[in-house]
From TrEMBL:
<protein>
    <recommendedName>
        <fullName>Signal transduction protein TRAP</fullName>
    </recommendedName>
</protein>
């Protein structure tokens, strides 16, 4: 099974790591950045990382596309229902305008999942966030039903959009 490996940090630090590992992809939003790549191995080149068993895949990952990452922590007893939900998410993404590629995977050694989606452009992602598909399948509210009282005190459901470096540099958030 293919594995997706990612790590996050400051853009400066991640750009340095990217120079050491040219085959990894990079995305950034302001000063936050992510490096990611796929391999057949559960071992990652990143010392601080999250790794996932990819269960659904479509298209080829390309660091020149905006990338949304949806992190979904879920306790063991809710994994079964979530699997069906993620199968539906996969079907929806296959038919969503502007989706260039996607990966859906389960974290190795952790009770969490990821939905990584690469978009034709940022506006396509913003448009998707206004659809019923997003509201019913990837919004925090839609995913909250897979949580338990105990899991609410652990990692929260989150999503983040990362831009290609060239687009991130064109729209610096921290200009004074």
């Amino acid at each position: 099974m293919m594995k997706l490996h990612l790590t996050t940090g400051t853009i400066t630090y991640m750009q340095g790591l990217k120079k050491e590992h040219r085959d990894v992809k990079i995305g950034a939003m302001g000063q936050d950045a992510v490096l990611y790549y796929e391999s057949d191995s559960a071992d990652s080149i990143f010392s601080s990382r999250n790794s996932y068993d990819v269960q659904y895949t479509s298209g080829t990952l390309d660091e020149n596309n905006p990338t949304s990452m949806h992190f979904i922590p879920v306790p063991d007893e809710r994994k079964g229902p979530l699997h069906g939900h993620l199968a539906d998410v996969n079907e929806i993404l296959l038919g969503t305008r502007g989706v260039q590629s996607h990966r859906i995977g389960e974290a190795l050694g952790e009770d969490a999942y990821i939905v990584l989606i690469q978009w034709a452009q940022t506006s396509t992602y913003n448009d998707f966030k206004q659809t019923n598909s997003y509201k019913n399948y990837l919004s925090t509210e839609a995913l909250a039903k897979y949580r338990t009282a105990e899991s609410l005190f652990h990692k929260s459901i989150s999503s983040k959009l990362y831009l290609p470096l060239k687009d991130n540099e064109e729209n610096p958030e921290d200009e004074f």
